TrEMBL record:
Keyword NADP: yes
Protein name: Aldo/keto reductase family protein
Origin: domain of life: Bacteria
Organism: Actinokineospora terrae
Keyword Oxidoreductase: yes
Keywords noted in UniProt: NADP, Oxidoreductase
Family annotation (InterPro entries): AKR, Aldo/ket_reductase_CS, NAD(P)_OxRdtase_dom_sf, NADP_OxRdtase_dom
Length: 295
């Protein structure tokens, strides 16, 4: 863990450098579960607040709205970091992966994405990954990675392919901290990225006495404490909000630092288990592996 010094209020979001040299903001904005009809305004507000990294997915159904917000923002493309994700593909996975990527790129209205992730660790992941490697070599995806890969699947993918994933986006929050997983990723050169940083409020996260007490000590909210905790653990994070004031609050986490004692207190909250579902559960494998998207 890199203990970072407190920064001045208003300090810009800093970047992490991925294993291929691409720089990625450590704090971005996610649009999971944002309805398509609300997404353009939400992303517009996020960009206005100062976010420059936007995370979407084919499965979210809102790539077109994300693309409109980006185009209408007037922000130069080179200042933005755009992530989208590949849903589970039928065989032939390599051909279908290319088509799925082309569809996402068309919906976004972009000529490339900065990060393309395999959304789920199911079906022919090696065929999907070979196609993603080609997209990367062609410059259409500046970096490629995975999502929801447990260590065994991540090692299998890295051992048998040319390109190591740049990112693994997994459930990571105070109640499921993924410390051992992060250690393996660090050894393999894979950047951990958190989805669900607030655990969707489960276990009373926003009123938890440990987190609330630390927030009071810094004059910060629980959400800010959680984001700061993740950032100090070198975890990339993409919180979601549909409220402009919360978007701004979530960005305001670079003017303080948690102490070693506070980091240790948060470490005691780890349950070692998902607060949602386990991707290794056979029922979930069937459900997600057989789910099909429609354009």
């Amino acid at each position: 863990m890199t203990q970072q010094p407190p920064a001045r209020k208003g300090t810009a979001v800093h970047n992490v450098t991925l294993n291929n040299g691409v720089e990625m903001p450590v704090l971005g904005f996610g649009v999971y579960q944002v309805p398509p009809e609300q997404t353009e305004k939400v992303v517009t507000d996020a960009l206005a607040a100062g976010y420059r990294s936007i995370d979407t997915a084919a499965a979210y159904g809102n790539e077109e709205a994300v693309g409109r917000a980006i185009r209408n923002s007037g922000i130069p493309r080179e200042e933005l970091f755009v992530t989208t994700k590949l849903w589970v593909q039928d065989n032939p996975a390599e051909d279908n992966t290319r088509r799925a990527f082309d569809t996402s790129l068309r919906k976004l209205g972009l000529d490339h994405v900065d990060l393309y992730l395999m959304h789920q660790p199911y079906r022919d992941v090696h065929g999907q990954w070979r196609a993603m490697q080609d997209l990367h070599r062609e410059g259409l995806a500046k970096a490629i990675g995975v999502s929801n890969f447990h260590p065994d699947r991540l090692v299998d993918l890295t051992e048998h392919n040319e390109i190591t994933p740049a990112v693994n986006q997994i459930e990571t929050h105070p109640f499921h901290q993924r410390t051992a997983d992060q250690g393996l990723m660090r050894d393999r050169g894979v950047q951990i990225e958190s989805w669900g940083p607030f655990a969707e409020g489960k276990n009373g996260l926003f009123t938890h006495p440990v987190l609330s007490g630390i927030g009071e000590a810094h004059g910060k909210s629980v959400a800010q404490v959680v984001l700061r905790w993740l950032i100090q653990r070198d975890v990339v994070v993409i919180p979601k909000s549909v409220r402009a004031e919360r978007m701004a609050e979530n960005l305001d986490v670079f003017d303080f630092a948690l102490t070693d004692d506070q980091m240790a207190r948060i470490a005691t909250l780890d349950t070692g288990a998902s607060q949602f579902f386990d991707h290794r559960d056979p029922g979930m494998t069937i459900q997600l592996g057989n789910h099909r998207l429609t354009d």
